[in-house]
Amino acid sequence: MMTAPGQAPTVPPGPRHPLDPDPARASKARAVFALGLLAALTGLFVGGVVPATVALQLARQARREAYASGGFLTGAAWLRRGERLAWTGLALVAVTVVAAVVVGVVRLAEAPYGQDFAPNVD
């Protein structure tokens, strides 16, 4: 086999064993992406917490299954994208909660303290 100077020689892949399964995309990878997208879209409404946590748990399980499969389960790119979207959704939830707390504290500080009586009441 001839290669260009500076290139590493390529080795043709060995024959596959007939009982080896065909590589397939993990079904959990698609679910992680869908849940991560849902979390990112609903993060500002604080509804993104549930799909984000489910997506992160599924991603963890999918990574374990992909590792145990020895390379026959694919979909790592979908997992990464789904995890990033889930973390984005959680960050949006955190921003929303912090903003709501700040607005609540400011409104509480502006409220009159105690009971306000008329000027002619002792």
UniProtKB/TrEMBL annotation:
The keyword Transmembrane helix applies. Residues 1-24 are annotated as: Disordered. Keywords: Membrane, Transmembrane, Transmembrane helix. The chain crosses the membrane at residues 31-56, 85-109. It comes from the Bacteria. This is DUF4190 domain-containing protein. The lineage of its organism: Bacteria, Bacillati, Actinomycetota, Actinomycetes, Micromonosporales.
